[in-house]
Amino acid sequence: MRETEYLLDPKVAGGILVLFGLLWIFLGHYLGKKAKNFEGFTVAGRNVGLALGSATVVATWITSNTTMLAPQFALQLGIWGMLAYSTASFGLFLFAPLAQRIQKLMPKGYTSGDFVRLRYGQKTWFVFLLISLFYSITWLISMGMAGGILLQALSGIPYAVGMSVILFVCVMYTLRGGLFAVIGTDFIQSLIILIGILGVGITVIITVPSREIYSNISETSPGLLYVLFPAAIIAIFNNMFFGIGEIVHSNVWWSRAFSIRKGLGGKAFVLGGLFWLPVPIAAGFIALAAHTLGININSPDMVGPLVASKVLGSTGSIVIFIIVFASLASSIDSLLAATVDLLTEDVYRKIYKPSSTDHELRKVSVWITLFLGILAWLVCLPRVGTLASVLFFAGPLVGSTIWPILTGLLWKKANAQGAMYGMLVGSIVGLYAYFTLGWYTASLIGTAVSMLVVLFCTWRRPAAFDWNQLDEQGASLEY
Amino acid sequence: MFLPYYSVSMWMKTVCLWPGQIIKQALYFSICMMAFVSPTHSVSMPEVSFSHGLHAISDSGYYRLQWELDEAKEGVQNLQYELQRKDLSKGDVFKTLYLGVEQASFVSGLLDGKYLFRVRSVQNQNKMGPWSSVFTLTVKNPSLVLAIGLFALGAMVFVATVVLVATGVRRSS
Q1: Predicted ipTM?
Q2: For residues A441 and A348, what is the distance between their CA atoms, to the nearest angstrom?
Q3: B33 and B64 share a domain?
Q4: Most exposed: A70, A250, A306, B66, by fewest CB within 10 Å?
Q5: B154 and chain A: CB distance < 8 Å anywhere?
Q6: Cα A328 off chain centre by
Q7: Does B14 reside within a domain?
Q8: pLDDT given for residue A93 in this prediction
Q9: pLDDT tens profile A421-472
Q10: How far is CA A50 from the centre of its chain?
């Protein structure tokens, strides 16, 4: 076997890791001073402005998947794959008006679980919690694993070291500052990621003539340009519904809706979506230039770093390493904070101890952050490759939550049976499609089946929900 | 390690002083000649074979090819690999896809059909090993009817979702 060559010297990579790790911890510590109570820790005092709000939306949605998987999508599915990945921004656009409505209906809300419990009752809430916690925890673990694997692939830093450093850094600043720290660091991370990816994309466009890229792909990989490439056509809506499902149901996004200043939620999500939209397109274009640049793609998920390193030399490798570290941190911290909220608010306070005080909840959230960090570290450590693929099962599960959540927010007639059976039947049929038809059908079929169940149940037994029930703490509603 | 033939001849002429050493010198000469000749002959280049069998089916138009040396490569410097592909549906000839040091290559964007791949070792771009056995990749993408059907289903659910949000938000505000 040939000796492995890394894009970046491990010493340089280690230096960057330490430097940025300390920067995130310092910023988290500094910004987190405001998180004095539970409300500060979980929803950043409900007073986040437009700039920080938009930035946290962009940074959270740019995961390591966006920087590594979007080029892979372009390489596997071509132009359609690139566009399919960018449709994940539709979830942000769709959630924009809902964020406004959530702020109106639940001025003192904390989590998406709160909404489902108050809107549909305990049985549906339980099903929702199972789906949401499965999604959040598997995503957290897969991101931790991805972190270790990527840092090792880029620089040779041992998997266990890279993974441990990333988790440690994120746990440290989330522990200290909760959502204040997460949103503050997200702002800087989003700037780094956007400038870095667009910079590499523009350099590729300038360096490699698009005519050459076109003729090269036509010759070697014609399917990537074929307008009726079947796998790519199917992937478009499947990917879109996976993205919409993630955003609509996940507490990562609901906590942002609660934290952004009243009246600004919609704008922040639209701006975030607009900033995010070109990222997978730029990243995808980078991948399409690979063959023309004479780059052999050994492993499809490494195409982005390889092209960046080729066109920008060692600077490109450093830029990509920083982008990957920033995108990993911005997603892990958000997931950590949102899952801690879900466990503290929905499980500890609502199930275990409803009489808990604000101070007590703040302390519990610290312990849960630590617990989640250690759990993720322990599960990531053996590097069981198949574990990351479990996240793909989440596609039909989150897709099946779209219609129950949307109708619950917008229709008085939507009922608990429709929501619960929509999630259950949509998930089961979607998983069946995953194994029988293929992964690229599961989210779409899960969403479609859930929609039909919700529509049928609403038609059969329309409810007459009183929106005031959503305002658990008695704030006056303006709608 | 080997000595050039010219040096060996000169050494024989000047150093061969008594008959008892002729056998030793003949042996040494033979060893030198073997060592001298062998690296220039293509047969001595290491053989390469695909590490994932010789047949595969792809239902998505992409595949990761991997290959390995059949024998140890010690003593062979600057070893590279040449990967070639032939598209049977085009009545194509083998064309080089990759020449380099890596032992894997990802191919994608393949339309329905049969593709043949072969690989060999290359040294200093002028000494080649034998071609490997041919690997056949059969690409059978999902049916277009299924793809368009799912696309239409996706479009309907998407439009319904957008209408739900648009009308719901308008009504509530």
Answers
A1: 0.86
A2: 36
A3: no
A4: B66
A5: yes
A6: 10
A7: yes
A8: 94
A9: 999 999 999 999 988 887 788 999 999 999 999 999 999 999 999 999 998 7
A10: 20
State whether B21 and B95 are in the same domain. no
Q: Is B50 helix (H, G, I), strand (E, B) or coil?
A: strand
Interface size A-B, in CB pairs within 8 Å, comes to 136
What CA–CA distances, in Å, run from A14 to A26, A166, A177, A312, A317?
Answer: 18, 12, 25, 20, 13
Q: Is B158 on the interface with A (CB under 8 A)?
A: yes
CA pair distance A404, A458, nearest whole angstrom: 11
Write the CA distances from A58 to A279, A452, B39, integer angstroms: 10, 32, 58
B104 and B32 share one domain: no
Percent of chain A topping pLDDT 70: 96
Residue B153 lies in a domain: no
CA–CA distances in Å: residue B111 to residues A80, A230, A328, A383, B60 = 15, 10, 35, 35, 9
CATH number for the domain harbouring residue B90? 2.60.40.10
| CB contacts, 8 Å: A448 with chain B | 153, 157
B102 and B18 co-located in one domain:
no
Q: How many domains does chain B have?
A: 2
Nearest CA in chain B to A225: B109
Instruction: Decide: residue A190, CB within 10 A, 0-12 exposed, 13-18 middle, 19+ buried.
Output: buried
The low-confidence residues of chain B, meaning pLDDT below 70, are 1-43, 72-76
Q: Is residue B122 part of a domain?
A: yes
Residue B166 lies in a domain: no
Q: Residue B122's domain spans which residues?
A: 48-144
Residue A226 to residues A222, A256, A289, A435, Cα–Cα distance (Å): 6, 39, 17, 27
User: pLDDT, tens digit, for every residue of A280-336?
Assistant: 888 888 888 888 888 888 878 778 888 888 888 888 888 888 888 888 888 888 889
**B39: burial class by Cβ within 10 Å (0-12, 13-18, 19+)?**
middle
Q: Please tell me the pTM assigned to this model.
A: 0.81
Reply yes or no on domain A3-386 having CATH 1.20.1730.10: yes
Residue A12, SS3?
Answer: helix
pLDDT of residue B29: 52
Q: Do B54 and B114 belong together in one domain?
A: yes
In chain A, positions 49-88, which contact chain B (CB-CB < 8 Å)?
75-76, 78
Shortest CA gap B7–chain A (Å): 35
Cite the beta strand spans of A216-268 per DSSP E.
Answer: none
At A32-76, the pLDDT tens digits run 887 778 888 888 888 888 988 898 888 888 776 677 778 888 888
A108 touches chain B (CB under 8 A): no
- Do B89 and B64 sit in the same domain of this protein? yes
**Residue A26 to chain B, least CA–CA distance (Å):** 41
Residue B118 sits in the same domain as residue B74? yes
pLDDT at B18: 47
Q: Which amino acid type is present at position B17?
A: L
Please indicate, yes or no, whether residues B74 and B26 belong to a single structural domain of this protein: no
